[in-house]
TrEMBL record:
Pfam families: C2-set_2, Ig_3, V-set. Signal peptide: none annotated. The lineage of its organism: Eukaryota, Metazoa, Chordata, Craniata, Vertebrata. This is Ig-like domain-containing protein. GO terms for biological process: homophilic cell adhesion via plasma membrane adhesion molecules.
Length: 417
């Protein structure tokens, strides 16, 4: 029994040491299988890559860098783990793949005319001890084809319901479709996405259902593809399709007279103006509560009067037909008496002449009064002639009166013109 205890105490330490060795080996295994594009600051030999997105037919640039190198070579491998470049040496005979730059710390390659099969993970490796790798994911976008609109190859009638379908194929990921009517977006049904059996792309279909009016005639219906490849300068294909909508509608009619004041004895016509799709070609003229005047002639959209007469007064109706529907309208004709119009015109001229004459007379009177006022107040001056010299009996008395008589002399005013 005592010997058994001794053997057990001796085997436990050996088992503990074996466990430690296994743990250390596992740690070394993890350390030697570093496969990440995460940058470890403490490992200057770890490669650094970047994910790329490119459209079909474009060019993608793959860059792999390390901070330091111990004379080990950098290598790029494709999704099938085939070596593309080992340093400066081409390993795969594919002329689409070219070397851009190769140094001790950097390896850059390009892939032109990218295909859907180029989609996947690419690996950059540096053959140090242990070997270090980094992955770069290349996402290849399938470029959607030009959208195709179907559903209204023929003209549609006013107030009818139209169902239009837009289809675009070849997108990856699936594209989104948008409808526009004269630059205004119209909501369509949710897109239907179907995968293509021969390649990893999708076909997207959208429907637009709406009721048309006459205002929609010649409107532009557009289907636009929204896809990430639209932002790529290398993306190919047109992303927008437009078609003109033709709507058939009955005519709207109005009557346009030759003048607003038709005079008796003059030539005159009424024109029936109709707007419809198609354009109206059949016009019917009628006179309400009676026949058309004998001198009135129907000339398609025109009703012509060779010489107006008072008997032509009345309500005239025009009806236009374009095969889709009919439209009608009426107009009241009132023929004017030319003599009454001339007399009225003469009276008006007489009244205007009288008013002008009165205004001229008043202006002349004002000028005369103003002239007389200005003449009477033109200006004054003072004279100091000696009073009493004319009544003196002799010359000496006159001189005395003249020398001393100024103090009592009244001012004498004289007016001059």
């Amino acid at each position: 029994m005592s010997g058994m205890r001794v053997r057990q105490s001796m085997t436990f330490p050996s088992f503990h040491r074996a466990a430690l060795r296994a743990l250390a080996a596992l740690t070394m295994l993890i350390a030697t299988s570093v496969r990440s594009n995460y940058v470890f600051d403490e490992d200057p030999f770890q490669p650094v890559t970047q994910d790329e997105t490119v459209s079909v037919g474009g060019v993608v640039i793959l860059t792999c860098t390390v901070k330091e190198n111990d004379n080990s070579s950098l290598q790029w491998s494709n999704t099938a783990q085939q070596t593309l470049y080992f340093g400066e040496k081409r390993a795969l005979r594919d002329n689409r793949i070219q070397l851009v730059k190769s140094t001790a710390t950097e390896l850059i390659i390009s892939i032109a005319e990218v295909q859907l099969s180029d989609d996947g993970e690419y690996t950059c490796s540096i053959f140090t001890m242990p070997v270090r790798t980094a992955r770069a994911t290349v996402t290849v976008l399938g470029v959607p084809g030009k959208p195709v609109i179907t559903g209204f190859e023929d003209a549609v009638q006013e107030d009818s319901t139209v169902t239009l379908t837009c289809t675009s194929s070849g997108s990856k990921p699936p594209a989104k479709l948008h409808w526009y009517l004269n630059q205004e977006e119209k909501p369509g049904r949710p897109d239907v996405v179907e995968s293509n059996p021969e390649e990893p792309t999708y076909t997207v279909t959208s429907e637009l259902i709406f009721t048309v009016t006459r205002n929609d005639n010649n409107a532009l219906i557009a289907c636009v593809v929204d896809h990430p490849s639209n932002a790529n300068a290398n993306a190919n294909g047109d992303k927008k399709t437009e078609q003109s909508l033709s709507v058939l509608f009955s005519p709207r009619v109005s009557i346009q007279p030759e003048s607003d004041l038709p005079r008796e004895g003059e030539k005159f016509y009424l024109q029936c103006v109709a707007n419809g799709n198609p354009e109206p070609t059949a016009f019917v003229w009628r006179r309400k509560d009676g026949e058309l005047p004998p001198l009135a002639k129907v000339d398609g959209a025109f009703l012509r009067f060779e010489s107006l007469n008072k008997t032509d007064n009345g309500i005239y109706e025009c009806q236009a037909d374009n095969g889709i529907g009919m439209g009608d309208v009426s107009h009241t004709l009132l023929v004017q008496d030319p003599t009454a119009m001339s007399t009225s015109s003469g009276v008006d001229h007489a009244v205007i002449g009288g008013v002008v004459a009165v205004i001229v007379f008043i202006m002349l009177c004002l000028l005369i009064v103003l002239g007389r006022y200005l003449i009477r107040h033109k200006g004054t001056y003072l004279t100091h002639e000696a009073k009493g010299s004319d009544d003196a009996p002799d010359a000496d008395t006159a001189i005395i009166n003249a020398e001393g008589g100024h103090s009592g002399v009244d001012d004498k005013k004289e007016y001059f013109i």
